[in-house]
Amino acid sequence: MHNHPSFEIIDGDPGLGLVILADHATNFLPERYGRLGLPESAFERHIAYDIGVEGVVRGLNARLNAPVVMSRFSRLLIDPNRGEDDPTLVMRISDGAIIPGNHPITSEEWQYRLDTYHRPYHDAVSRTIAAVAEKTGKAPLVMSMHSFTPAWKGAARPWQVTVLWDSDYRAVGPLLCELEALGDVIVGDNEPYDGALRGDTMFRHCMKPGIAHALIEIRQDEIGDNAGIVRWVDRLAPIFSRLNADPALHTYEIHTSRTGPY
Question: Are 69 and 22 in contact (CB under 8 A)?
Answer without folding.
Answer: yes
